[in-house]
Amino acid sequence: MNLSTLMFGRRLANREHEDKKIGWVEAVPAIGLDGLGSSSYGPEAALTVLIPLGALGLVYIGPVMGCIVALLAILYFSYRQTLSAYPTNGGAYVVAKENLGEYPSLLAAAALMIDYVLNVAVGVSAGVGALVSAIPSLHPYIVPLCLAIVFVVMLANLRGTGEAGSLFALPTYLFIICFLGAIAYGLVGLGLGEKAPVVAPPPLGPAAQGATLWLLMHAFASGCTAMTGVEAVSNGMGSFRQPVMRNAYFTLTIIVVVLGLLLGGVATIATAFEIGAMDQTREGYQSVLSQLLAAIAGHGAFYYIAMASLLSILCLSANTSFVGFPRLCQMVAADGYLPKAFAQPGRRLVFTAGILFLSGFAALLLIAFGGITDNLIPLFAIGAFLTFTISQAGMTQHWRRRSRRYGAKLAINSVGAVSTAAALVIILIAKFAEGAWITLVAVPVAIAVLKMIKSYYISLQRELRKPGPITLEDIEPPTVLVITEAWNRLSERAIKFALTISPDVVAVHFIRLGGPDREEGEKALREKWRIDVEEPIAALGLRPPRLMLIPAPYRQLHQPLLRLVEKLDADSPERRVAVLIPETVKDRWWQKLLHMNRAGRLRTKLVKLGGPRLTVATVPWRLYREEPPPA
Amino acid sequence: MNLSTLMFGRRLANREHEDKKIGWVEAVPAIGLDGLGSSSYGPEAALTVLIPLGALGLVYIGPVMGCIVALLAILYFSYRQTLSAYPTNGGAYVVAKENLGEYPSLLAAAALMIDYVLNVAVGVSAGVGALVSAIPSLHPYIVPLCLAIVFVVMLANLRGTGEAGSLFALPTYLFIICFLGAIAYGLVGLGLGEKAPVVAPPPLGPAAQGATLWLLMHAFASGCTAMTGVEAVSNGMGSFRQPVMRNAYFTLTIIVVVLGLLLGGVATIATAFEIGAMDQTREGYQSVLSQLLAAIAGHGAFYYIAMASLLSILCLSANTSFVGFPRLCQMVAADGYLPKAFAQPGRRLVFTAGILFLSGFAALLLIAFGGITDNLIPLFAIGAFLTFTISQAGMTQHWRRRSRRYGAKLAINSVGAVSTAAALVIILIAKFAEGAWITLVAVPVAIAVLKMIKSYYISLQRELRKPGPITLEDIEPPTVLVITEAWNRLSERAIKFALTISPDVVAVHFIRLGGPDREEGEKALREKWRIDVEEPIAALGLRPPRLMLIPAPYRQLHQPLLRLVEKLDADSPERRVAVLIPETVKDRWWQKLLHMNRAGRLRTKLVKLGGPRLTVATVPWRLYREEPPPA
C-alpha cells in the first residue's frame, strides 16, 4: 500500500469501467451542483439590477423570473429529446459535430471548455465569498481557501466521479430538503393569510428611476445565470450506469424541477415579503436567500443548517465542471483536436489530464484575480447560452434529416433553439461592456488552437504512414559502439551484450585530460584491454572488440561520438551504427544526486542529434540488486 | 550564436585552461574583496563593543587593533610559507590531508565550506544594508536586491574567474586609492599638527562602565572578523597563471598590506579625531568609515566617490567565495567526499556545480533571513580561524617531517598555529552564546555527510569492480521484442533494426480495449501483419517476426511486458531478451505536450523494474527530418 493507493485508491482494470458508473442518486450531487447552486445567484442577480427601482422592482421580478422559468421548461423538454437521440453522449460538441459540421462543433467545444473553467473559478470564489462574509476572520485566507477547495474537489474526482458524488451527497440533499421545505412552508403560510415575515427584511429604498426596457433586459440577462449547469447532464452521459436513459432522465428532471421550484418560489415569496437585493459593498449586507429564510423561519437552528448547506453546495458547485470537462476533452482529443493525453484514462479510469488541466487553470484564475472573480460572471452565462443554442440548432437539423414523423420533436427543439438564441442576444447586448466581449475574443482563439493541434496530428500521421509491405534492403548486423568509462562490470556487461548482437564491436573511451599523463594512461588502458578483453575473446575464436580512444576536448561526449559515427557510416555504408551506453539504475532520489547521469544526457543528445541510421541503446545495471560483487 | 553563448560565452576547450588563468591584477579584485571589505566592518565591530566605555574606549582601540594587525602579520608570513610549500594548491584542505590525515582535512573542508557560504550571505546583505541606509527608498526591496547581486556575481563567475576580476577591478582599485589616500592625507595632517576634523564626528557618550578583560576580549573577537578572507589566496592557487608563485605572493601581499594599513590607519585616526561606533538602530547612524572620511575630507565629491567604492566592494565581497568554494569542492569531490558533479569543469572550465550550489544556498539563507544576516556574523569568524589553525598546524607537521634545516619556517608556522588557535578560543568563548555554538553543530553534521558520500562511492566502486578478464558464457543472439503501436514507418524501422541484430524477433502489440470490437480489430491486425511483414520477409528466406497481442487491462504496458520477458527467460534461458521501443524525437517543447511520451515512460519503468538480463533500446525517428513521406 503506497502513497498513491492511499490518495487515489487502487488502480482499476478496464473491465471495471461499468462498475464505476453512477446512478441518479450520486449523479444529482456530482453533476447537479452547478444547476442547483445557480438558484442562489440567479434571482439575486436579477434583483440587484432592479435595486434602482426600489419597491417598484418587486412588480417586475415575478415576470422576469417567469420568463426564466419558462425558458428553463423549454430547455428541459429540448434536452430530454437530445438525451434520447444521443444516449451515449448528448453533449453539444457531439450533436454539433454530427449535424452541423466541424466549425460549429469546435465553437461548442470552445464555449463549453471556457464555461467549465469559469464555473470552477466563479463557483469556488462565490462559495468562499459567502463563507468569508459569514466568518469575517477568514478574510485574509481567501486565496488559500479557494485553492484548498479546488484541491479537494480535484482529489475526489481523481478517485472517480462516483466517489465525488457520494462525498457531496449529504450537503446536496440537505440543501434540497431545507430550501424546498422552507419555500413550501412559506407558500402555505401565505396561502393561509399569514402576511407578516418572522424576521422582517430591511426596507427597500426609494425608487431612483422608472422601469425601462433596457433595465428589464438587463435583469433578465443577469437572472439567466441561474440556468447554467442545465447542459451538464447531456455532457455527463458517459458516467451513467445502466439503465442509462432512466438515470439521465431522473437526474435532469430532479435538477430542473428543483431549480424551477426554487426560482419560482423565491420570486413569489420575495414579492410577498418585499425582499429585495442589498448592496454587497455596504455593511450589514444579507443575500436574498438569507433574508428569505429569515422571513419564513426566523434566525433559529434551521436557518443556520440551511445556510450551511447552501454554502457547501456553492463551494462544491465546481464539481459539475469536473464531471463534464474531462469527458468533453476526451472526445475532442479522440478527434485529434487536443493532445492525446486528454483521451487516456488514468489509474481510476477517469481522464486525469482533463482533471489536472481544469484544476490548474482554475487555480491560476483564482490566484490571478485574488479569489474574487465577480467580473468573470458575465462571461460565464454567454458560454452556457452559446452551448444551448448550438445544441438545439443541431437537434433541429437532426430531426429535419429524418422523416416528417418527428414534426413535434422538431418543433420543440426549434422553440428551444430560437428562445436560447434570443436570450443569448439579449445577454450579449446587456453584458457586452461588462466583459462579454472577452468571450468573443477567447472563443476564436480557442478554436484556432484546436485547429492547429489537429493539423499537427494530421501531418504527423502523414509523416508516419507506411503504405504497403516492409521494404528490406539488407540485414547486415550493425557496428556496435560501446561507451566505456573504465573496465568494470558495467562495461563488461555492455561488451557481452554487444557481442551477442554483432560481430563488429568497438569500445569507445573518451580522453578528457591532456598533458604527459595522458600517454601513460592510454598505454596502461590499452594493455589492460588486451589482457582482459581481446585475448580471452580471441581465444574463443571470436573477433575481439577494438578499443578506440577519442579525445573530448570540450568535455561533451556527443560531438566526437557523432563525428565517429559519420566516419563509420562513410567507410561502410552497408552497416548501420548502434551505440550502447551502460547505465546504472538509481532506485533512490539521493543516488541521482551522487551520479552524473552522463548516460542519460549522452543518450538524449545522440537521439536528438544523430542521423536516421543511428540506434541508441542503454544496458542497465541495477546497483546492489545484481549478482553479488566478487569477494 | 544562441542564448547560452551570449550569457556565458563560447564553450572552452580543455587546452584553453591556461589562457583563462589570472595574474595578480585581476586576482586582487577576484579574490581579495572579502579581505579588503573586512576593513570596513572589523574596526566598526570592535568599536561597537567598546561603546559602553564612551570616550575611554578610544584608549583601548589602539591596542586591540594592534593585536589584530600583529596577528595579521604573523598570518601573512605563515601563509607565504604555505604558498611556497604547496604551489599548486595550498588550501587548508590539502595541507591538512597531506599532513594531518582524513578527519582534520574534512574538518577544514567543512569549516571552509560553511565559511564561504556565510561569506556570500553576510557580504551581500551587509552591502545591501549599507546601500539601503544610503537610499532609504530602496528599503522594501532588500531581498530582491540581495538576490540580484548574488545572481550577477554568479553569472560573472559562470563566465570565468578572470571575467569576474576584470568586471570588479574598477571599484576595487578605486576603493584602495581613495581610502589609502584619505588615511595618508589624514595622518600627514595630524603629523603637521592639524588636530581639528573637517566635519566633527558626533560626540561620544558618557562611560557606562569600566573596561574589563571580558569586554576587551569581546572587542578583539569582534575585530577579528577583519581577518576573514586572508586564506582565500591559498585556496585560489589553481586560478593563477604563470609565474604562479609571483602572482600569488603579489596578490597576498597587496591584500594583507592594504588591509593592515587600513586597520592601523583607521585605529590611529579614530583615536585622534575621537571617532567611535554609533548605535545602528538609532536614527542618524553613521558608520565609522563614513565619520572618518568626513573628518578627514569633509562631505565633498571625494566623500561620495569613496563611499560608493566602499559600497561596491562590500556588495561584491561575495566574489571571494565564488573563487574559493568551487575549487575546494572540486578537490573534495575528486577525493570522493562530494558528488562527482562538483569535480566536472563546465562550459567555461569553471566548476559549474559548485558555483550553482553556492549561489543557491546563499540565496536560500538570504531569503530565510529576509536579507538581514547580522546574526550570522559570529559564525563566520569561527570558520575562518578554524581554517587558519588547521592550515598552520598542518604546515608545522609538514616542516617537522623534513630536516632541521627548516627550523625557522617551523617556528613561523608554529607561532601562526598557536596564535590563531588562541584567537579561535577567545572568539569561541566571547561569541558562544551569540551563535558560535551553531558552528559546533553544523561542522560535525557536514563532516558526517561528507563521510556518507565517500562510503557510498566506495561501495559503488566495490560493486562495479571487475577483477580479471571478461567471462563469456555464450553469445547467442537475444530475443528481440519490438513494441508496435500500429504498422507505420516507426515500427517498420524498429523491425528492420531488430532483424539486423537477431533472427528471433517478436512484435508486441498491446490491446487496451475489450468488447466485441476487439476480436475484429485483432483479426484485421494479424491479416495486415501477414501481408505487410511476414510474407515479404519469408520471401527473402528469413524467419519472419511473430506478432504477439498482449492485453494491458490496467493501461500500463510495463507489467504485461515484464511478465512476457519472464516467460521467455524461463522458456529459453540461453537467450537474453532485448526490448526495442520506437520513439519519435521531439525537437520543440510544444511537441512534447502533444505526444504522450509513452516510449520514454515505458523505457524508464523497464530499466527500473526489469531483471539483469534485460536490455532496453530505443529506435529514434526524427520527425520531419527523415526521408520524405511517401506521396
From TrEMBL, chains A, B:
<dbReference type="Pfam" id="PF13520">
    <property type="entry name" value="AA_permease_2"/>
</dbReference>
<feature type="transmembrane region" description="Helical">
    <location>
        <begin position="116"/>
        <end position="135"/>
    </location>
</feature>
<keyword id="KW-0812">Transmembrane</keyword>
<feature type="transmembrane region" description="Helical">
    <location>
        <begin position="170"/>
        <end position="193"/>
    </location>
</feature>
<keyword id="KW-1133">Transmembrane helix</keyword>
<feature type="transmembrane region" description="Helical">
    <location>
        <begin position="293"/>
        <end position="318"/>
    </location>
</feature>
<dbReference type="InterPro" id="IPR002293">
    <property type="entry name" value="AA/rel_permease1"/>
</dbReference>
<feature type="transmembrane region" description="Helical">
    <location>
        <begin position="436"/>
        <end position="457"/>
    </location>
</feature>
<dbReference type="GO" id="GO:0022857">
    <property type="term" value="F:transmembrane transporter activity"/>
</dbReference>
<feature type="transmembrane region" description="Helical">
    <location>
        <begin position="249"/>
        <end position="273"/>
    </location>
</feature>
<feature type="transmembrane region" description="Helical">
    <location>
        <begin position="349"/>
        <end position="370"/>
    </location>
</feature>
<keyword id="KW-0472">Membrane</keyword>
<feature type="transmembrane region" description="Helical">
    <location>
        <begin position="376"/>
        <end position="394"/>
    </location>
</feature>
<dbReference type="GO" id="GO:0016020">
    <property type="term" value="C:membrane"/>
</dbReference>
<feature type="transmembrane region" description="Helical">
    <location>
        <begin position="213"/>
        <end position="237"/>
    </location>
</feature>
<feature type="transmembrane region" description="Helical">
    <location>
        <begin position="406"/>
        <end position="430"/>
    </location>
</feature>
<feature type="transmembrane region" description="Helical">
    <location>
        <begin position="141"/>
        <end position="158"/>
    </location>
</feature>
<protein>
    <submittedName>
        <fullName>Amino acid transporter</fullName>
    </submittedName>
</protein>
<feature type="transmembrane region" description="Helical">
    <location>
        <begin position="49"/>
        <end position="77"/>
    </location>
</feature>
<dbReference type="InterPro" id="IPR053153">
    <property type="entry name" value="APC_K+_Transporter"/>
</dbReference>
